[in-house]
Design a protein that fits this description.
The complex is a heterodimer.
Chain A lengths: L1 H19 L2 E6 L3 H15 L2 E6 L2 H10 L8 E3 L3 H9 L23 E13 L23 E2 L7 H13 L1 H13 L8 H10 L4 E6 H9 L5 E3 L7 E8 L6 H11 L2 H9 L3 E2 L21 H6 L1 H12 L1
Helix pairs in contact in A: 5-6
Chain B lengths: L3 H4 L11 H29 L15 H5 L2 H32 L4 H11 L1 H4 L2 H12 L4 H6 L4 H4 L2 H37 L4 H30 L2 H7 L7 H10 L5 H29 L17 H31 L15 H7 L4 H34 L4 H9 L6 H12 L12 H12 L1 H13 L2 H9 L4 H28 L4 H6 L7 H10 L3 H30 L1
Helix pairs in contact in B: 2-14, 2-17, 2-18, 2-19, 4-10, 4-11, 4-15, 7-12, 7-15, 10-11, 10-12, 11-14, 13-14, 15-26, 17-20, 17-21, 17-23, 17-25, 19-20, 21-23, 22-23, 23-26, 25-26
Classes of the chains: A alpha/beta, B mainly alpha.
Chain lengths: 318, 567
């Protein structure tokens, strides 16, 4: 009982003090261990307290929207480049170029935001499933994979949308033909990333079309029997943008935080989670910049068409 | 009129004029604070899409596009059909059990009662996940016995079965209690005069339990209507969208459409509210007058074969409702890897050990959830006691407003409450705000759980004849004294029981927690959600099992303590 009272009183107290104190508020879309480690290391280095809200990219944006009359967040780390583009278009973001972003490829930085790291979209397959090892995206439309393929829903997962946009940008006709064929091959589109990956880990399905690679590599590292294949015809990156809000009252600390995330130390922490570090000079713990064949396309232009792209995809896979 | 005794409120009450207005204003203020403000915020948002920036620009622009969405109509239809089906199946599962319960010896029956509460302790999304692991292609059943029920699981009947197996205890508890109290005595009388079992059931017992069946059935209906996790996990596999998943989509898919979501939330509120109004009308029509609802059941001798049949019946339900899900969760929590499947070499305790490390992230999530759940139970039941007493006994002016406010939270989805609370409390003009602290979670849980104690306590209070109060007044007792010395001891067990329900729901609440958890705070549900999201299903299952066991034992302990103290 006493503990409860102190707990509740304590939480009320933090409610009133949090507004006044010099703390940096960061909303981050996973992975939780990474955001936690970055926040702790930054606190130790600078003495600035970091308040971390950890959720999925969509819920972070929903919270940000609902809070608009009295914004709290200083820095957002999202899993969706599209979210950052949209905020930038609404001119909600503070223009800032970190000196540490020098080694970040030009495609992964804009005047208002920069990638903290990136995931690549890949095929994840369960070697226990007895299926042949796939090598190309189109392989999954073959008859041996009938009823065995899942894919994250582009309407629910920003990274899956990026993959559809990339493949369509590369060759519109063959990409939509591929999705038609996949649908005919009983492609299952069960929800966001975990909804597509978990059935494959459990063995109910055999292959994920467009899995976020660092999550799969993390699962493999924990002992799961799961393999990642990067199709040689190319894949897309899902960069994870970090941005400072214009409404931030802690702009200096926010800039320092972005600098820290892009520092050598911060980027090594990013690499620890099997994410591709944004800086090309930091060693990745997974296939790095030189090993990936990437489909180059204009993400800002693709973002303008995203509603119709999602609509078309849903029609095909319904 | 249902309970005629309630019709003429006391000309006797003259002693404490201040209590009635005080209680009325206090309860109204509390309900306005907890329920009224967030709902008002949602309404404002639906009307003025930019109210979150303190602007009244583009008024009403969100309503037409949201309502003209064709998918919305099918989602509403799906929600209604699903809720009806789940309610019906839950009654079909629960009613025979409640009847069989009368044929059990007391200690035996209590054991089954406790076991039948377990499904309610399993968070719905965890239950759905465990059914997937068990029944789907290459699931546990197939690994052991070589067949699967994949097609049934991912179908409308499968969804209905999974949700009913989770929700039927609500009906079982209500029906078995009212059968025990009223059904048996009247059945005895009929039996004395040569009544046969079936006519006794249809002519006497069924009409007498119909009130509690209606009340608890409605609760199941609304709970199904609001449920997010199971339809999202299972329904999305066969393209079945309900109104709550549509709302969730508007809240989380870019571009985030909060005003549109508010419009949908209002529809949800409207439908649930209509359900309660219909229920009120139905109970008024079909309630039977019972002179002395306080009759206690007498001990009757049950033939041995009847108790064997009854036990068999309970086993039949307990296997799919309790044993299979719990065993699946336990196995899953003990698996080292998901891909390793069912093999002795793949079993270990590593995921449990990770939780028990004091001050680790999962440990903190567990203690936070338990403390919050305890706080929510205290707060929710406390407010519900005030509301119930004011509604049933005081009958103040402005009753309709109070009645309306007490019904509202029934109709609120977790997501809507979360946004309503953010819009309400994240304003710079408040001198002090619970927002961005754990207190906002406490507030959310209380708002979401208020209906349970309010429903059960008003029902319980209605069952207590007004003559009890009047007896007190005759001897000069004040209202406060009657409240504390006469009514409180009688409804305390009910208050406690509803407190446990609040505790169970709060300790696992997912949707609003995901939105409202202040920076740096994790609850059990958000922790499990993040584990699932990162492909660590086993670790999430271990956490769920620990929570089910801990909150289950707390509830059990509470029940046995009250039994020794009060009964």
């Amino acid at each position: 009982m006493n503990k409860l009272v102190t707990f509740l009183a304590g939480s009320l107290l933090t409610a009133t003090t949090a507004i006044a104190a010099d703390t940096l508020t960061v909303y981050s879309a996973g992975p939780a261990p990474l955001s936690g480690a970055l926040a702790t290391a930054f606190e130790e280095k600078t003495g600035t307290k970091v308040e971390l809200f950890q959720s999925s990219a969509g819920k972070i944006m929903a919270r940000y929207q609902a809070e608009k009359s009295n914004p709290h967040v200083d820095v957002i780390i999202s899993a969706s480049w599209g979210d950052a583009l949209a905020l930038s278009e609404d001119s909600d973001l503070l223009p800032y170029q970190s000196p540490n972003a020098a080694n970040v490829p030009a495609a992964l930085k804009t005047p208002t935001f920069v990638a903290q790291g990136a995931a690549a979209l890949a095929i994840a397959y369960n070697p226990n499933s007895g299926l042949p090892k796939p090598a190309h995206w189109a392989d999954l439309a073959k008859v041996e994979y009938k009823g065995e393929v899942t894919m994250p829903d582009p309407t629910k997962s920003g990274s899956a949308l990026t993959l559809v946009q990339g493949l369509v940008a590369q060759n519109s006709d063959s990409a939509w033909q591929l999705f038609d064929d996949l649908a005919a091959n009983e492609l299952l589109v069960p929800g966001a990333n975990s909804a597509a990956l978990n059935p494959v880990l459990q063995g109910a399905k055999g292959v994920v079309f467009g899995a976020v690679d660092y999550i799969v590599l993390g699962a493999k590292n924990k002992g799961e029997a799961i393999e990642v294949v990067y199709p040689s015809e190319g894949t897309v990156l899902a960069p994870r943008p970090i941005m400072i809000l214009k409404s931030s009252k802690q702009q200096d600390s926010a800039k320092a935080f972005v600098d820290f995330v892009l520092s050598e130390e911060g980027q090594k922490m990013v690499a620890e989670q099997f994410i591709l570090p944004a800086r090309t000079d930091i060693q990745a713990k997974r296939p790095g910049w030189d090993e990936l064949t990437l489909i180059e396309f204009d993400m800002a232009a693709a973002a303008n068409d995203s509603a119709s792209t999602k609509e078309k995809f849903s029609q095909i896979t319904k | 009129m249902a309970f005629s005794l309630l019709g003429g409120t006391g000309a006797t009450v003259a002693s404490t004029r201040w209590l009635r207005p005080l209680l009325f204003w206090l309860t109204t203020a509390l309900l306005l604070l907890l329920v009224g403000l967030p709902v008002l915020a949602i309404v404002a948002y639906a009307l003025f899409p930019h109210i979150n920036e303190w602007s009244f620009a583009q008024p009403f622009s969100a309503i037409i596009p949201s309502l003209s969405d064709l998918d919305l109509l099918s989602a509403i239809g799906n929600s209604l059909v699903l809720s009806f089906s789940v309610t019906l199946l839950s009654v079909v599962i629960a009613l025979p059990l409640a009847i069989q319960r009368q044929h059990l010896a007391e200690s035996n029956g209590r054991l089954w009662d406790a076991l039948m509460l377990v499904p309610f302790l399993i968070p719905p999304y965890i239950g759905a996940m465990s059914w997937m692991q068990l029944l789907q292609r290459r699931g546990f059943i197939e690994q052991l016995f070589g067949f699967n029920l994949n097609d049934l699981l991912y179908s409308f009947p499968g969804l209905v079965i999974v949700m009913s197996l989770h929700l039927f205890p609500m009906i079982y508890v209500a029906a078995s209690q009212s059968l025990r109290i009223i059904g048996q005595r009247y059945g005895d009388v009929a039996r004395v005069f040569g009544g046969q079992p079936w006519p006794i059931f249809f002519r006497i017992q069924l009409p007498l339990v119909s009130v509690s069946l209606l009340a608890s059935g409605l609760m199941v209906f609304v709970l199904t209507f609001e449920e997010f996790g199971t339809p999202e996990i299972l329904g999305s596999r066969f393209g079945f969208e309900v109104i709550v998943t549509s709302i969730h989509k508007k809240f989380t898919d870019w571009p985030i459409d909060l005003p549109g979501a508010s419009v949908l939330s209002l529809i949800l509120i409207g439908i649930a509210f209509a359900a309660f109004k219909t229920h009120g009308w139905l109970t008024k029509r079909f309630t039977t007058d019972i002179d002395t609802p306080l009759l206690t059941a007498t001990k009757i001798e049950v033939p041995r074969y009847r108790s064997i049949i009854a036990n068999g019946w309970f086993c039949l339900v307990a296997i799919p409702a309790v044993i299979l899900p719990v065993v699946t969760i336990a196995i899953s929590a003990s698996q080292k890897t998901l891909t390793g499947g069912l093999a002795w070499s793949n079993l270990g305790l590593q995921h449990f050990i990770a939780i028990t490390a004091v001050n680790s992230e999962p440990w903190q999530a567990l203690t936070t959830s338990l403390l919050l759940a305890f706080g929510a139970a205290l707060g929710s039941v406390g407010i519900a006691l005030l509301v119930a007493f004011t509604l049933v006994r005081m009958q103040p002016k402005g009753l309709a407003l109070l009645d309306f406010l007490s019904l509202l939270p029934n109709a609120l989805p977790g997501m809507a409450v979360a946004v309503g609370l953010i819009l309400t409390w994240n304003q710079s003009f408040w001198p002090m705000t619970p927002y961005n602290s754990s207190a906002i979670l406490l507030l959310a849980y209380m708002t979401l759980t208020l209906p349970y104690p309010i429903r059960t306590l008003t029902a319980a209070l209605k069952q207590l004849p007004l003559s009890l109060d009047e007896a007190g007044y005759v001897f000069g007792a004040s209202e406060l004294r009657v409240l504390l010395r006469v009514l409180w001891p009688l409804i305390a067990p009910v208050a406690l029981a509803s407190g446990f329900i609040v505790f169970a729901i709060s300790s696992r609440e997912l949707v609003s927690s995901l939105m409202l958890a202040p920076p740096g705070v994790n609850t059990v549900a958000t922790y499990v959600f993040h584990q699932f999201d990162q492909g660590s299903v086993n670790a999430g299952m271990a956490m769920s099992l620990v929570t089910i066991l801990v909150s289950g034992s707390i509830i059990r302990l509470g029940q046995s303590l009250t039994r020794s103290n009060m009964l």
